[in-house]
Structure formats: C-alpha cells, structure tokens
Design a protein that fits this description.
The structure is a single chain. This protein is 74% helix and 0% strand. It is flat and about 60 Å long. It is built from 8 helices and no strands. It is mostly helical.
Length: 140
C-alpha cells in the first residue's frame, strides 16, 4: 500500500522521473521516520504493522513546550551564533549583489532592455534590504 501511494504521490509531483524514483524515495522516508522518534506517526502510516507511539508524543510536550528553553538565556539575547549568522548573511548579500551586477553588464552587452530593468530592480531590492537589516535601533 505504501509503495502504491508513494508511486502516485511522486509521479504526481515529478512526473516520469518521480515514477522511477518513487520506491527508493518512499523507502528512504520510511527509514528516516523509523530512526527519528518524533516522526513515528509517519513511520506507522508507511508500516505494515504499526509500532506503539511513545507516551511523550501522545500526551506530552507540544512543540512550543520543547522550544521554551531556547527562549531563555544566551539564545534569547542572540549571543549564540550571531557573528557567524551575520557574516554568512553578508557573504550571501554580496554574492547576490555581484550576481545582479553581472546580469546588468551582460544585459547591456546583449542589448536586452528587459534584463537591464530586472537586474537594476534586483540590485535595488537586495541593496535596500541589506541596508534595512544593518540599521541600528534608535529611539524615535
């Protein structure tokens, strides 16, 4: 039954390639669901004989109750990983600005007016978003 549903779903999602990959993808999802306790509902849905659901999944903590400890301490203040996150965001933004600039240059070389407008608009949107996130909070 799981293989049939998998073939229907992956075939609907990806067409012929989904039909070819349906059984391996469904088996992989079943394997991952078997290894992770919080995915036991998906594992039971794909299983021939369902296993018992852990008590903490049936009665226990909600997702919010499990994440509350992360809202306290250094996580809430943004001290954990903030510098790495900021650096990776800056690298991504510079890469996107470089891509928009190169698209602008190529559009000029090929005389493509629509791509010129699109690259200028992309550069504007990325640049203003970057400036808005770099702004420090001030009292108004």
């Amino acid at each position: 039954m799981a293989a049939t549903v998998g073939i229907l779903f992956w075939g609907w999602l990806w067409g012929v390639m989904g039909l070819l990959l349906a059984v391996p993808l469904t088996a992989f999802i079943k394997l991952v669901a078997d290894l992770h306790p919080s995915m036991c509902h998906l594992s039971n849905m794909l299983a021939l004989t369902p296993r018992p659901t852990p008590r903490w999944v049936r009665y226990g903590e909600t997702a919010l109750e499990r994440t509350v400890p992360y809202f306290r301490g250094p996580y809430a203040k943004g001290l954990v990983g903030a510098n790495l996150h900021r650096a990776s965001g800056n690298i991504f933004t510079v890469a996107m600005l470089t891509l928009a600039t190169s698209a602008f240059c190529l559009a000029i070389l090929k005389s493509q007016e629509g791509n010129i407008v699109g690259s200028v608009g992309t550069f504007y949107l990325i640049g203003t978003a970057w400036l808005a996130t770099r702004r420090t909070h001030t009292s108004y």
